[in-house]
UniProtKB/TrEMBL annotation:
High-level lineage: Eukaryota, Sar, Stramenopiles, Ochrophyta, Bolidophyceae
Lineage: superkingdom: Eukaryota
InterPro entries: FAD/NAD-bd_sf
Protein name: Uncharacterized protein
Protein's organism: Tetraparma gracilis
Length: 504
């Protein structure tokens, strides 16, 4: 099936690897990671060069490395400080992102729309064509944690929609479902958004180097910071005669890494620490048409309908599902979808050698596609093997508690922002609903991990307090460097405690 997949999109960002060859390359990387063998050595990306000469030509204030979300950052910089000389370097022949929509929430989209608006305000009206950035909009998503698929949605029957229904005559232990409005319910066209940003960026005088891969960055030694960085580039595609790609370079005062999760800069830092990830999230999925449009009017943000799957060879996995309608009519929510849907199945697991291959997980995907399911990490040799319903019971009760606590707890959580107050309320609510489960959770997590985690929670409370106390702090005295360091401290407190989350 993969060999007949449509050709990959012209962009190179995350989610553009849709061909069989790219899948096989990913399989190889996964099997190397599981085997514990270090990745093939790569030349260092950033090197300190004591003999770096001063620049004798144009020096960009900021070089943005990578132009998927990088072009949005670059436009934001240029539209708020038009005097800056900003250059974006993108390895793909043209900034394009992926073909498939990005799902975001309105709050996240608003940040990007503000940037577009600010940029347009600096240009003569009608200078660049406005494109449809939002190509899909639907009311929201279902979250559900069930040990088996039910004949109909549990939501339709409030009396039995609980892991522990009040009526003892009802079957218990099936699960819980809730509907979370306005989360990941906006489908953004990467092609349209990035084309819009690209046009505006160029109109504001930004510099763009497409089809150029950054090979290396040479930086001056300490004490010579005034010497600009040297960013060495090469053409992404080798010349037709098979010779070496043409080399090129530019100078910049600052390099902003927007090269995504495959960033060679991050890879260098990780390699220097000698660390391998202790947990990963494997995602497989498809975007397909042919679904019933009448039943394609909302999404699934996290959904299970199976207990933990145990296998003697590949350990235990809890599969989760996520799905979003695609290309529904913007501004016409709830009238049913287009019949097109993005569907992912994912599992959280450690990267131990016995874990299944991506091909095996994809095989499970095809088998389970009609019976949505999602996976969480359960170690093969853990001293305590939980009940197969462990994950569903934990999440069903936890979501039931969060849903009852309301949007102030649910909404930040669903948008990956952890706030200590909300976390504490959700934990207490979960404990109150299912106190007998707490010993099992502690046994599964392990006391050392629990103590370590509680330390992080305590730190989040301290960060939240520090962020509140420093609110409105202005006019911090000191050199530019001291002011910058102070600002990074304020940011750490704010973002580290979820204080950046904007409630509607
Ligand atoms: C399957 C999947 C589904 C996802 N779905 C969503 C979603 O629905 N909504 C959402 O918000 N997010 C989603 N994401 C997250 C997604 O990764 C980001 O939203 C987005 O792609 C991140 O953009 P980025 O620019 O940070 O990184 P990337 O998309 O990885 O882009 C990095 C860019 O850097 C360039 N680059 C890399 N190395 C170099 C180099 N040496 N020189 C020059 N250029 C270089 C690449 O060509 C690329 O354009 C999904 C990710 C995956 C994998």
């Amino acid at each position: 099936m993969l060999s007949s997949a449509p050709p990959a999109s012209p962009g190179l960002g995350a989610g553009t690897s849709t061909s069989l060859a790219q899948f096989q390359a990913l399989e190889l990387a996964w099997s190397r990671l599981k085997s514990g063998s270090p990745p093939p050595p790569a030349p260092p990306f950033v090197v300190t060069d004591p003999s770096l000469p001063p620049a004798d030509g144009r020096v960009h204030d900021v070089a943005v490395a990578g132009g998927t979300l990088g072009i949005v950052y670059a436009l934001s910089l240029l539209s708020s400080s038009p005097e800056l000389d900003v250059c974006v370097i993108e390895a793909a022949p043209r900034i394009a992102g992926r073909e498939q929509e990005w799902n975001v929430s309105d709050g996240e989209l608003a940040t990007v729309l503000e940037v577009l608006e600010r940029a347009r305000a600096l240009l003569p009206a009608g200078g660049t064509p406005a494109r449809a950035v939002v190509t899909t909009r639907f009311p929201g998503c279902r979250a559900g944690f069930k040990n088996e698929e039910t004949a109909g949605p549990l939501l339709a029957d409030p009396a039995s929609n609980s892991y522990f229904p009040a009526d003892p005559s009802e079957p218990s232990g099936v699960g819980y479902e809730c509907f979370v409005p306005a989360v990941l319910n906006v489908g953004v066209s990467p092609a349209n958004l990035l084309a819009e940003c690209r046009d505006l960026f160029l109109s504001l005088g930004g510099a763009l180097r497409e089809g150029k891969r950054i090979r290396e960055v040479r930086s001056p030694p300490a004490g010579k910071e005034a010497t600009p960085l040297l960013v060495a580039l090469s053409d992404s595609s080798p010349p037709a005669d098979g010779g070496a790609p043409a080399a090129d370079e530019l100078r910049a005062r600052l390099l902003l890494d927007c090269m995504g999760n495959a960033s060679p800069l991050v890879r260098q830092v990780r390699a220097s620490l000698g660390e391998r990830p202790d947990g990963i999230c494997v995602v497989v999925g498809t975007c397909a048409s042919g679904y019933d449009p009448e039943r394609n009017g909302s999404g699934d943000i996290i959904y299970t309908n199976r207990p933990i799957k145990s296998d003697a060879d590949s350990g235990s996995l809890q599969y989760f599902w996520e799905s979003f309608p695609v290309s529904t009519t913007p501004g016409d929510p709830g009238v049913g979808g287009s019949g097109k849907k993005t569907t992912y199945m994912f599992a959280y697991l450690d990267a131990d050698g016995y874990r299944p291959s991506l091909t095996d997980i994809f095989e499970d995907y095809w088998k389970e596609l009609t019976v949505f399911q999602k996976a969480m990490s359960v170690r093969k040799n853990a001293p305590f093997q939980p009940d197969p319903t462990f994950v569903n019971r934990l999440l069903a009760v936890n979501f039931e508690a969060m849903n009852e606590l309301g949007p102030s707890v649910m909404m930040p959580f669903m948008q990956d922002v952890v706030r200590p107050g909300g976390l504490l309320k959700a934990l207490l609510g979960t404990f109150a609903k299912d106190p007998a489960f707490t010993p099992q959770i502690i046994l599964h997590v392990g006391l050392p991990n629990l103590v370590d985690w509680l330390g992080h929670v305590a730190a989040m409370f301290l960060y939240a307090a520090a962020s509140k106390l420093s609110e409105g702090e202005g006019g911090y005295a000191g050199s530019a460097k001291e002011r910058f360091l102070r600002q990074t401290q304020l940011d750490a407190w704010k973002y580290g405690s979820g204080e950046d989350f904007k409630f509607d």
